[in-house]
Design brief:
Residues 46-201 form the N-acetyltransferase domain. By secondary structure, the protein is an alpha+beta fold. The chain contains 6 helices and 9 strands. It has a 9-stranded mixed beta sheet, with helices on both faces. A hairpin with a 2-residue loop joins strand 8 and strand 9. The protein binds coenzyme A. The site of coenzyme A (COA) has 25 residues, from helix 3, strand 6, helix 5, strand 7 and helix 6.
Length: 201
């Protein structure tokens, strides 16, 4: 069990919400034929499922809603647009080497993509590189932690021994999220602004 956070008196502590990586304990995740229905603590609903080739336009629309900072943090460099070929590549995955999970907002038509997490397997190293993204208006409600946990579970299911990723040192939200999930960070020699974070599985 994760130790309780020490924020002073017991009564104040009792009012804290659960840590984000505990918020999606099974009662909030309901399996449906389309994937898992995710009920957020603030009453919103999403469906988590594997990415599909039909998600290309939703991926493109999601990219247009991202801030330049989010784009840089996710792709590690600035990009003013997501080329169609790249959107296609992100949606048409090779299931042997990749897994990607999307959080779809099906309360509207067409459904909108609010978050995505993926792994890319390095067979030689028996490890996988991850990436994750949650749309700004949907952050701080545990979705990043949910996607990361899904990636950890999938990596373990594949028998991989390590899950790792590159994170910009200024990306405090991601570094904090990974720390909460037990990842450790190490500096990249020759790349001052980037950390490699990893979790032994
Ligand atoms: C980083 C990112 C995935 C976090 O997603 P999220 O849905 O907000 O994450 P969660 O709500 O699950 O937060 C989990 C924990 O991360 C930490 N965290 C998240 N956002 C934070 C912020 N803005 N400041 C400080 N800590 C933060 C907190 O410890 C949080 O737990 P808490 O809410 O109990 O305090 C999201 O901000 C994002 O997509 N950023 C742009 C893309 C990116 O940076 N990707 C990572 C590189 S691959």
């Amino acid at each position: 069990m994760t130790p309780a956070r020490d924020f002073g008196s017991h009564s104040r502590h009792a009012q804290l919400p659960p840590r984000s990586n505990e918020r999606f304990a099974s009662p909030r995740l309901v399996t449906s034929p389309n994937g898992k229905v995710v009920h957020t603590a603030d009453g919103r609903e999403l469906v988590m499922r594997s990415i599909e080739s039909g998600d290309i336009t939703a991926v493109q629309r999601c990219f247009k809603r991202l801030s330049p900072q989010d784009v840089r943090r996710r792709f590690m460099h600035a990009m003013s647009e997501l080329p169609l070929s790249m959107a296609q590549r992100l949606c048409r995955i090779d299931p042997e080497l990749e897994a990607a999970y999307v959080l779809m907002d099906e309360t509207m038509t067409p459904a909108e993509l609010r978050g995505v997490g993926r792994i890319f397997v390095d067979e030689a190293a028996n490890s996988a590189e991850f990436s994750v993204l949650v749309e700004r208006e949907w952050t701080r409600i545990g979705l990043g932690a949910l996607l990361m946990q899904q990636l950890v579970d999938e990596s373990r299911r594949r028998g991989l021994t390590e899950l790792w990723g590159y994170v910009l040192m200024e990306n405090r939200p991601m570094l904090q999220l990974c720390k909460e999930l037990g990842f450790v960070a190490k500096m990249m020699p020759g790349e001052a602004g980037t950390a490699q974070i990893s979790l032994k599985l």
